[in-house]
Amino acid sequence: MKKLKIAVIGSGSTYTPELVNGFLIRAGRLDVSSFYMMDIDEPKNTIVSGLAQRMVKEKGHDAQIITTSCLEEALTGADYVVSQLRVGRLPARILDEKIPLKYDLLGQETTGAGGFFKALRTLPVLDNIADIMQKCANTGAWLINFANPSGILAEMLAKKTGINSIGLCNVPIGMEKNLRAKSNNAPDFDYDYVGLNHLSWITSVIANGKDIIQDLLANEDLLHYAKSPNTDFLRAIGGVPSYYLNYFYNHDKLVAEAKEKGITRGEQCVTIEEDLLKLYQDQTLVEKPALLDKRGGAHYSEAAVSLIEAIENDLNTMHVVNTNHRGVFPFLQDGDVAELKCVVGKNGPTPVPLINPNINQHIIGLIQGVKAYEKLAVKAGLEGDRDAALAALLTNPLIGDSSKAQGVFEDLFEAHKAYLPQFRF
Questions:
Q1: 56: closest CA among 22, 92, 15?
Q2: Catalytic residue selected from 36, 80, 191, 244
Q3: In the annotation, is 225 catalytic?
Q4: Is the pTM of this model over 0.90?
Q5: Contact, 225 vs 171, CB < 8 A?
Q6: C-beta separation of 83 from 129 below 8 A
Q7: Could you tell me how many helices (H) and strands (E) the chain has, helices first?
Q8: Which of 66, 118, 178, 206 is deepest in the core (most CB within 10 A)?
């Protein structure tokens, strides 16, 4: 097997032990010679990398754990780069979640106004990482991006020449596992996955040679995905939505609940991370702790490392990723990035045709609108274009209103301007 250098950008994340564990359990299929742990937060990076080193030693592996705050050092000679950075860290997330509530808009880290500003902060940073990869990484290296908003970042990366990139999310794996169980684990299980990152539906489910999607849409057990009181709603939209569609289908209710709760998910994560970092400093800890499951990100390691394994070993296995849809969705433009099923081998992802191409017009319309928003977000984030930024917010179905869009933009810009040097006004 080829010796691999893995660069982890944003390695101070408390998710990192989950990622390292994914490589350790595949040691017979992926020979990692070194993990380069890159983060600008050196204290956190030291703590997290220390646990990673103990995990490697406990499993009897000889992979080196090397900490650095230098991108060039991490990326030079890298075979795979896993990006999980968070520009502004959790304090910025909390602002993304709180400020929009002032305008009765959803405060959320990956979608709506909050997710938009997370994109503005992250796009130039990831663009720079990709540029350095082109110069320093091994020929044929892959950038696997987990940073959010993954779809917008994938849209940007897909337009860059000379770099291999894939956007990844853990939501598809959870949906697939759930529906497979609802299909009694049929051996010939298959499905259609349609959409964008955090805007996706499963529109066909094949079990025992039959499309059972209509039966599933009548299953009240699936109502939790869209927080709907009845199955009429699921039949009307024509697919099982990912739980992120809850922000679109129940926006006002979630805004009211967020205001009443008074504490954001980001604030909860601060406490969880503090507890995790205390655990990580325990020199007797040699495996990822159970508390990590409360941080979110279920199936994170499975999604990332199984994808790398598929590329490295030319497995030609099925994965749902963010990449150029290559004509699978005729309602999108050529070159648009979508989140869809692909066969993944040594040449990366190849989208597979839909089982049933007859997609509900509601799904098509919402995807087209949000794709337009994503493209405007990329333009705004890379060029510091204020007009594109406001147009993006006006296009986003979660915002739309002009006074709210302008107000939330000014407030969030003021809060995050230290991370937005591309804007000159």
A1: 22
A2: 244
A3: no
A4: yes
A5: no
A6: yes
A7: 16, 13
A8: 118
